[in-house]
Specification:
Length: 104
């Protein structure tokens, strides 16, 4: 006899409370250095992070004046990918631009 139709309190082998959580979110940050040009930072922000020129300029100024600027908040995989893209493009152009991620 199958207990397919058994009442929930009699089916102890089934987990009835699946916990659904939002994915962890990560803030992606650009860090100031003395060598990377402002134009390159704006290009990264518009091409990689899809910011408008106005948004990119504001973030670039934050990086320049405060030492760090937030590019956006993403899931872990997306944040890791964006950090890797920034580092690859910066190295290709000879810039030491540093990009990091931190959990929100």
């Amino acid at each position: 006899m199958s207990d397919k139709f058994a009442s929930p309190d009699r089916r102890e082998d089934i987990l009835l409370e699946d916990e659904v959580r939002e994915p962890r979110r990560f803030r992606v940050l650009l860090h100031n250095d003395d060598y990377t040009t402002m134009e390159f930072v704006i290009a990264i922000l518009t091409e990689v992070f899809r910011k408008t020129t106005r948004e990119a300029t504001a973030i670039m100024l934050s990086v320049h004046e405060q030492g760090v600027g937030e590019c956006g908040v993403y899931t872990a995989e997306v944040a890791e990918t964006k950090v890797a893209i920034v580092h690859a493009r910066a190295r290709k152009q000879g810039f030491p631009l540093r990009c990091s991620m931190e959990e929100v």
